[in-house]
Write a structure and sequence with these properties.
Helix 1 (25-36) runs parallel beside helix 6. This protein has helices spanning 25-36, 66-70, 106-112, 137-142, 181-191, 217-224, 228-232, 252-259, and strands at residues 13-19, 41-43, 52-59, 74-82, 84-86, 95-98, 118-122, 131-132, 135-136, 152-164, 168-175, 196-206, 209-210, 247-249, 264-265, 274-278, 284-290, 295-301. With 308 residues, the protein is an alpha+beta fold. The radius of gyration is 22 Å and the shape is globular. The longest helix has 12 residues, at 25-36. It has eight helices and 18 strands.
């Protein structure tokens, strides 16, 4: 009897998930992987369990671009409830302090927000996936353990005020990788003379992917009921993940060399060091770095079923 293949399909592409609240990003990732019966899957940056919104999931060889998507900019809508600070920075946590909520106007808040735009040093919260001596910080935090964290340089490109009440505000935030919105919101609440925590967090854009492209898990399940071909139609091409990277079309002999890890010389020259590689049939074969001398050095090469 033939042995059953437990690895899954060699399916490659990117699916944009509208992550539901109350579930971890990894839980959603594993469900997507099972629905597609994919051999490999990875997401491009965790969302808190409370959070919803854009979660790009890379399947198969597309996982080789996931680290570059992780480094990309993000956009969020977030609501802050004033008057209480929680240990996690959001409403999933335990209230650790309360404070009076001063009277403030839209003008007051708009006067404060520019302080938080630009390059900032931000200390990651204890409730985060960052690791300390191999242990995720959130696991230590749940044990009541706090360790020193180094500040990290982040960039807040823009903050827009979307809504305001006597005890809350909602913002649109465009930011760089590594930004903790919970920490940003808490800092803004302190600047208002109170304390606050996140009650709603939605990622509306990540790495150029928008919430309008995102599918819910329920939509994927419905497609899966019509068979894998129907499900596969929802996949986006891997090469679309990095649209600002120049394209280089290689001759067949160059493709062979690239797949063996060898650099090749091309006629094209780009100011940007990173490029996308295509074979003569316009099939995406991976990512490379172009040197000043015109050599293309492979960085992430796709191994596709029809590759030699």
């Amino acid at each position: 009897m033939a042995r059953r293949n437990k690895k899954g399909r060699d399916i490659t592409g990117i699916i944009i998930i509208d992550k539901p609240t109350g579930r971890s990003s990894n839980h959603v990732l594993q469900q997507v992987k099972r629905l597609f019966n994919a051999n490999k899957a990875g997401h491009t940056g965790s969302l808190d369990p409370l959070a919803t919104g854009v979660l790009p999931v890379c399947l198969g060889e597309a996982t080789k671009v996931s680290s570059y998507l992780l480094d990309a900019d993000k956009q969020y809508h977030v609501t802050c409830q004033l008057g209480a600070v929680t240990d996690s920075g959001d409403s999933d946590g335990v209230v650790i302090s309360t404070s009076d909520i001063p009277e403030f106007t839209e003008h007051d808040l708009l006067a404060i927000l520019p302080r938080f735009i630009g390059e900032l040093d931000q200390v990651p919260p204890m409730f985060s996936a960052l690791k300390y001596q191999g242990q995720p910080l959130y696991k230590l935090a749940r044990q009541g353990i706090e360790v020193e964290r180094k500040s990290r340089r982040i960039t807040i490109y823009d903050i827009q005020l979307l809504a305001i009440t006597a005890d809350s505000f909602t913002l649109d935030v465009r930011c760089s990788k590594g930004t903790y919105i919970r920490t940003l919101v808490e800092d803004i609440s302190h600047a208002l003379g109170s304390g606050g925590h996140v009650t709603m967090l939605r990622r509306v854009a990540a790495a150029g992917y928008m919430e309008q492209q995102a599918l819910t898990i329920e939509q994927l399940i419905a497609s899966a009921e019509n068979g894998l071909p129907s499900l596969d139609e929802s996949l986006l091409p891997s090469e679309d993940a990095l649209p600002d990277w120049p394209s280089v079309v290689l001759a067949d002999y160059m493709v062979d060399a690239i797949r063996q890890g060898q650099a090749v010389k091309v006629e094209q020259a780009f100011e940007r060091a990173n490029v996308r590689l295509f074979d003569p049939q316009q099939q995406f074969i991976g990512l490379a770095e172009m040197t000043e001398t015109g050599n293309v050095q492979p960085k992430r090469v796709f191994v596709l079923p029809d590759a030699p």
